[in-house]
Design goal:
Elements: E1 2-6, H1 11-27, E2 32-36, H2 39-44, E3 52-55, E4 58-62, H3 68-77
Parallel strand pairs: 1-2
Antiparallel strand pairs: 1-3, 3-4
Helix pairs in contact: 1-3
């Protein structure tokens, strides 16, 4: 599984990345977590508001910092 945080590096984008990393660590899962900072690549995903979270290349959350519960639910759905 690959989770990407899409955002240019604003505080909300960094907070979203921290939430994702914390949940993945707490679940003890082998998940690739990356951050896409390139605005052109973010636009290619069709994202209009950051931060956004993509799982396996598909946008799942857009325009907000997700809660730990939201991320945990999404990760478990994609196992």
């Amino acid at each position: 599984m690959k989770i990407e945080i899409l955002g240019t590096g604003c505080p909300k984008c960094i907070a979203a990345e921290e939430v994702v990393k914390k949940v993945v660590k707490n679940l003890g899962m082998e998940v690739e977590v990356g951050h896409v900072y390139d605005l052109e690549k973010i636009i290619e995903y069709g994202v209009m508001m950051t931060p956004a979270i993509a799982i396996n290349g598909k946008i799942k959350i857009e325009g907000k910092v997700p809660s730990e519960e939201e991320i945990e639910k999404l990760v478990k759905m994609h196992l």
